[in-house]
Amino acid sequence: MSGTPDSVIQIDADFPGGNIVFEGIEGNVVHLRQDLRDSEWWFYWYFRARGCAGRTLVFQFGEGGSPIGTNGPAVSLDGGRTWSWMGLECLRGEASFEYTFPDPADDVRFCFAIPYLEENLKSFLERHAENASITVEELCRTRKGRSVELLRLGKLEGEPTHRILVTVRHHACEMMASYVLEGWMETVLSDNLDGEWYRDSVEMMVVPFVDKDGVEDGDQGKFRRPHDHNRDYAGESIYPSTAALRMLVPGWSNGILRAAIDLHCPHIRGKWNEFIYIVGSADERFWREQCRLGSILERVRRGPIPYRAEDNLPYGVSWNKRPNVPGPSGHNYRSYGGWAREELGAELVACFEVAYAKARGVVVTQEAARAFGRDLARAIREYLVGLC
Fold first, then answer.
1. Running DSSP on this structure, what letter comes out for residue 19?
2. Which residues pair with 76 in a beta bridge?
3. For 353, which DSSP code?
């Protein structure tokens, strides 16, 4: 495609988390598509536009399907430090949006949701650097040599009453779940009754980025070939982080692992993607505990994001029909949830799906997601107290 006379326009993804294939410009229309790399079609994209001050451009995605969610794209005018949703008014079709650049506009970034990267985690850890109730360790090194963070929070001296395992970003692009994790961790470290209870009773082990390379490289992560990180818990794990988890957690749990929680985000459109829900287990015993937690969470929720226990997705409904996904060789891959249910001995194993943009019509912002994390922390506390 021919370029515009204004050759200073630059569209790129050359920064942590970036993902785009720029195909050219025709008039005021920028043609691009998400970079799928080793995944099937998925919707993650994150790019930077420079040299566009004062221009009005339409960004048109190719490759079929719509990679734009239910609240439009997210935009940042300060290099990715702060974000706002553009809303649906900017859409010019299912797969395109329009934006008028302010002047000046040196670095405007667009993403299908609000990114959360290593730099965000570092900012969180810096804010709590003097708190003795959190430590930062290394789970392992990735294939590309990055450090996979392992956090321990709560009661770090002496034997706790409970242990909880929390994992996030088995699929690299599912960033809104990371803000939920921040809210939960803030609660554990806070000077309130919930925080005091956690620090007296619970040791949490947290892996914020299971697919650390994918997060920083800007991969889709979902449906990665030959299988993604959330299908790497059977046989010999092919990813260092899942292999390290399987080696470390059974000994650490020491018979008091009460809950294994995995935080995800769903698709960006459709009935089961516009609220927060627990993915129901095929095992009635675990489904019963998931429903009990859901009832508590609905009752104790204080934040702006609605949660209804009736939104939980029972096994056998919609996409929740196969606990394992057959691989190309014919054998089944086991998920994190399957591993936790079968080998870890936790009473509660739950995967939460956190809507990217809207939950029951309420816009999901960074702070709203953190507030849901605080609600989840409160519900987990009540759930565990009920076990005693």
1. B
2. 109
3. E
- Dihedral sign, CA of 10, 14, 17, 23? positive
Q: What is the 3-state secondary structure (H, E, C) of 245-279?
A: HHHHHHHHHCCCEEEEEEEECCCCCCHHHCCCEEE
CB–CB of 164/204 below 8 Å?
Answer: yes
Buried b (16+ CB within 10 A) or exposed e, 188-221: bbbeeebbebbbebbbbbbbbbbbbbbbbbbbbb
* Per-position DSSP letters for 147-191, written without gaps between them: EEEEEEEE--SS--SEEEEEEE-SSTT-THHHHHHHHHHHHHHSS
Tokens standing for residue 76 = 């940042």
Consecutive H or E run containing 207: strand 202-207
Query: Do residues 49 and 21 touch, judged by C-beta distance below 8 A?
Result: no
Report pLDDT digits (tens) over 265-302: 999 877 789 999 999 999 999 999 999 999 999 999 99
DSSP string computed for 47-90:
EEEES-TT-EEEEEE-SSS----TT--EEESSTTSS-EE--GGG
Task: Please work out, in degrees rounded to the nearest 5, the angle formed at the alpha carbon of residue 106 by the alpha carbons of 108 and 60.
Answer: 40
Domains of the chain, first to last? 10-111 (2.60.40.3120), 118-387 (3.40.630.10)
Residues 334-379: tens digit of each pLDDT = 999 999 999 999 999 999 999 999 999 999 999 999 999 999 999 9
Closest CA to 303 of 382, 378, 375: 375
Which tokens hold the place of 334?
Answer: 């086991």
> SS3 of 306, please?
coil
What are the Cα distances from residue 173, in Å, to 9, 15, 22, 243, 281?
27, 15, 19, 21, 24
Rounded CA separation 188/107 (Å): 36
